[in-house]
Design goal:
Lipocalin, mainly beta, 16 strands
Amino acid sequence: MKLSSFALGSALVFVTSVGIAQGGPLNPACTDPAFVGASMDGGDACQRAFDSFAYATQQYGILLSAGNMELGRADALGAFPNFRLAFRATGIVLFAPGFQTSNIPIGPAQPGSVYTQSYDYATVEINGALGLFKGFEVGTTRMGAVDAWLSVNMVPGASAAGYKVEPTSKVYVALGGRLGLLAEGKSTPGVAVSFFQRDLPKSNITATDFEGSSIAVNNFSIDTHAWSATVGKHFGVIGLLVGAGQTHFSSKATVSWTVNDTTPAMQPPVSAGSTQTQYFGDFSLTLGRVDFVLEVGEVFGSDLKTYNTFDPHSDWGRSFASAAITFGHY
């Protein structure tokens, strides 16, 4: 797999401009001898590496940004120094290529089915919300309250049969804010709109089959920007909330593969972006000043496609769940 640097550079530019998020065509890099060899031995592994990037992007985008920004609360805290702290865990069932059962074919890229394996994955975070502005009195309620939000997140590594996710950093920070449209009162629900940004630290993802062939997604990163609208009401110690919103995410990485103990001379870059729609509901139980919150939700609408077929498909909806313990002064 050795060609001139000019040929490699030309192919590299072409790969970057085409990307993979336009309906799942065969990526041109995977038919280019500069990457897959004159005999096309690396063609199928190349395409499966690109597909694995798209498949991972859709799922990690959900894990990063799905659900209520401030679990269990539908309105803004209001006046300074009102605050709220939350210890939260969010989980999702991820699906990853399972090449220990279905090996990576050697040869030109051909569309086919990729066996997947499921495993549980979760992030853990500490969230803090601080009231900045209490809003304006409107009758018996308030409108226009503003909160700031900060989250410190932990992302563990993960492994399954022949599959490994290794973050370069396991701690990162997210930022956001909330605008209270209506403060919760005796006869009125709480209503708010939230905005936040959460970015995944770079990670390296590898999948190896039982014959020693492998694919790799290196320096994989995702940036997410999300908004959601929430409405909720407390009935004594029980709180109920529903919400909906959207997340736009963009991701990038380089891909590589190994077949017949040979890897490409250069790693083609890849990038993608999409918007997903989410719906969620929270149930909370208040004991004194402490809330125990459970949330479940569903995310739909990613338009990322793959050349090969995964089950479940890359653009199918995914369910998620969160749990939190919260407390504060408000």
